[in-house]
Amino acid sequence: MIVRTAMRLSILVLATAEPSLALGPSVPNRVRPTDAAAIARPVEPIAIAVEDGSAPWSRPDGTGYANEIVAAAFGALGIPIAQHVVPYARCRALVMEGSVVACYSMSKAPDLQGLVAFPAMPLFRCTTELVQNPARPVSATASISALRDLPRGTSVGVVNGYEYPPEVEVARQRGAIVLKSVTSEELLLRLLAAGRLQTALVNLNDSKPLPFLAARAGVREPLARLARVGPLDSHLGFSVRHPRGLASLRQFEQGMATIRRNGTLARIERAWADSSRATILRAKGRQAVRAGGA
Question: Model-level pTM?
Fold first, then answer.
């Protein structure tokens, strides 16, 4: 398991808004010199860490579905943000220790209580699925519909630092499964295809279906869902220790309400779902060409 700790990319997103939103309501009284200095002082961008390997939600180049939502929410209020793209385990550690204001995409977990605060509305909802390579089934006889049905000691691939539904930790503590950590879900699928993992957990939704993830991983072999483990809400998590953490959370919630109301959020969701479908179609086209040339 390799955990990279160096920040690979810093993207400064300068969000804009109407002057009335950026500076507040006009004041009829003459502005005092100290007030003018305060207005002229630039607002320091909110430092946000973002995972580097969870396409289409967040990608290594600093773009992604979640990236766009976060920028739009703060942009609705004219608040600048600086997004730092890092491995998820690093993102998680930075927000827990208060080195950054926020991190995404995070889900609630016991070890985050008192350290990370979550908005009422998630960035997106997904489902954790247990998948396998049907060419190398984990069991030739047993019917598997949950983690508890797996043969005792089955290896289950996960991503380092990711949060999962509580059923996963229960199964681990009981010895029903052995967790194997890697750096990304794409790597999980490649290891499955190569027969180096028995099963893996992946987080999926309409913008990130299993065929999309397989296409990103370059996996040609069909992979099969074994069981739905549970739902997950994925959030922009805010540091309780950072002095700007809780205030930024309130601003984010206000911005999310705005982009939900004005249709921006729905447009972002549709665009990224369409992009994922296009990725799947391109992958199928390449497979058809290879099959025709065989």
Answer: 0.81
